[in-house]
Structure formats: C-alpha cells, structure tokens
Amino acid sequence: MRFSIGVLSLLLGISVYAAEGNNSWSCEGVNSIGFLWQEGRWENQSFAPATYFFTIGSESSASLIFSGYQWVFENCTSSNIIRCSTNLGNAIVMNFQTGEGAVSSIVAASVPPADETASTFIERIQCSRVNQ
Fold first, then answer.
1. Could you give the number of structural domains in the chain?
2. Counting C-beta atoms within 10 Å of the first and last residue's C-beta, which end of the chain has fewer, N or C?
C-alpha cells in the first residue's frame, strides 16, 4: 500500500512539474491592423506580421517578447483561454487548445504624442507550445 501511494505521489509530481515547465509558446502573426499617428493625425495602417514569444509564469503572471519589446503581465486569468492585460492597455488572449489568439496595444490612442510617431494595433496570432 505504501509503495502504491509513493508511486502515485511520484507520478503526480512528475505530471505537475511537466505541466509547469511547458508554459512557453512561440506565436506568429496572422494579420494585423491598426492606426499610425504621424503629422498630427491618425491614419489607418496595416502592419507586417510579428513573431512573439509568450511565457506563462506562476501566480497569474506572464511575459510577451516581440520586436524589441517586452510586456510583463501580472493579472492573467485562464481556463481554456488565457487573458492577460497591462494597466497601459496592452493585451494578449490565447486559446490553449487551438493556439489561436490576439495581441493588442491601444494605449497610444488615448495620448497621441505631439512630436513622435505612434501606433495602436490588434494582431491575430497562431501559437505553438515550445517543448522544453
């Protein structure tokens, strides 16, 4: 009996460890649309698809790396679909079963810069789990 409980505990521990260790996703942009702020006004803009690296941490944290940026999320919620956002309006949503999702950034729309170029966008993504 002790042997059975010990083996069961070991197997459960290995399963939990494997699930926790495999929380990285490689994502490719499918298509993207948004707005570009230049010369004092917003213009409709299509963007080239980006490549993303999405890592889900513990205690509802995650990070998204793309095009020289890193977004850190502290308030993710998930079941079959994970939803993460920042207080600045950056977000990612992804379905764990299909890998389909979207990334968006809307903060620039509320405070367009006076002397700079800025953008807001939403991009559909397709993600694959990274084997670690």
1. 1
2. N
